[in-house]
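Reviewers of the previous submission asked for a worked example of the structure-prediction workflow described in the proposal, so we include one complete record here. The input consisted solely of the amino acid sequence. No template or homolog information was supplied to the procedure at any stage.
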Amino acid sequence: MTDNTQVADPKPATDKPIKTKKHKLKKPATGRGIAWFALLVGLMAATASAYLWYRMLVVDRLLDSNLVARATQAETRLDKLSASQTSLDQAQAALRQHQDTLTAAQEKFAKSLGKDRHDWTLEEAAQFLVVANTRVKLANDIDTAMVALRQADQRLGSLSDPKLLDLRKQIADEIVALKTVTRADIPGLSIQLGSLIASIDQLPLATRPHFVAPEPMPTETQTEQGTWQQAAKEFWSDFKGLVEVRRVEVTQPPLLPKEQRYFLRENLRLMLRGAQLALLGGEVNAYMDNLAQVANWIKAYYDLESETVSKVLTDITAMREATITPNIPDISGSLDNLRTLQQKGDKP
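From that input alone, the workflow returned the following structure tokens.
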């Protein structure tokens, strides 16, 4: 059995050449791209150079100016601190000088009084005794004088010196003597004067006395006489009643006009206020003179038969007789004895 199958010829039936696909190769980069790239790099370099130039010329100058300003401020502050330090040094030097002066004065004072505690304490006690005597003699201030005497006794007692016992006993006697002094009731008298000032308007003024002639007493013979004789006698009696002559031993002041009564009351108030101020100020003479003048005016211009006026005059007399200046004893003996002990310089 024969195989009639035809085998295909691998060659094409025609004689046309077979076209094969050819790949195109890329051409290498040209000089134009390289130029653009170089331009870009140049621009970047120029930008960087410009920034560096700006930094160097502008920013650095600004920084330098700020640094210069800060340095100037720092120098100014440093100058101020230096000036303050100089002032402080001067103040400290003046303070040291003042302290040295005080120290020298204290040392000098200590030398004049004695450096030990005994002499210092005696001088303190002496100063308290001086205060006591001054207050008693100049101001009649008994309370302050007793306080000063007690302080002096405490200073002497702190020394525990038997030689000072007699002096301390003398101070105790002086305190007791001041306690027994009869004191004037200055606040009470001042209040009484204030009440008297308020009552001036209620005091009645005096009125002019009226002198009336006594009526003639009828007699038995008058009825027996004739009509014309009786009429003549009656006329003569009436005529004598119109005029009466009397001898006045004391000259009476004339009545004050109505417009002057106000000034009289105000003058009385001023005199009483002056007496009140003199009483509080310890001016005894002025106090007595004002009250005497007030009493004279009241007797001259006010109704002495009024109970109110009589009571006012009685009160004024009592205020004038009150003890204003107490009889204060002499307390200078303790001070004299202490000064004698200081001069001797006796110490335990």
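Residues 132 and 176 are 14 Å apart (CA to CA). We consider this example representative of the routine output the project will generate in years two and three.
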